[in-house]
Request: fold
Amino acid sequence: MMKMHELNSQKSSPIKRYVKPLLLITILVVALVAHRLGWIDMAAAHAYLETHAGQWWAPLALIVLKTVMYAFALPASTLILLAGSLYSPWVATLITVVGGVIGGLAAYALVRFLSPDFVNQRTGSSGIDLLRRHAGFLELSALRTFPGFPHSMINYSAGALQVGVWVFATSTAIGLTLKGYVYTAAVHNQIQAGSATDRFTWQTLWPLAAWAVLLIVGALLKQAWSPTQETEQPNNAKSYR
Reply:
């Protein structure tokens, strides 16, 4: 009986292997189509939140909206700008960080649940192992900080590569704190000054790029000082959990 059960599971495994990845792709496609067709009306959401910005629940609504957009890999950069236009830089940054971390963890968990078999089968390949070796705290913090880098790519890649939850969450919080404050302060100050100039010039963004470069340099130095630890780390998914 046991042998028959094992035989049946082996026969069905090729199909089960692709069920979760296909489900993940389906979810993302449906979310993208809904966004493109206007079922998720961001303009209406912006207008509604601007009208009710003084309500106690408005910051919570911004956090929930950002969480949903991050979870399904939808564009959420305008929510940072909206938060900066409605609240002080520190409050707007807090909204950005909380929504970004919760939404990032939701995306991370979704991909980690729906793609473990698909990714684990490729463990041992040079590409997957290279990505895992360079998916540490400093590298992820640098990517979060660098201007214009898509956060959805970080969220989903970290989940697929099974990066540690603590590393992912803390790097997300640090990166979004730095980026969130610079972005929201730029928007807030522009509104306060009544200026119509471009709010995001290199004069505004160079500190983020500099921080990202410093974090990358730190990651490279760390790897150079501990090559033995990097090479001896087992090439399996458990070491990244």
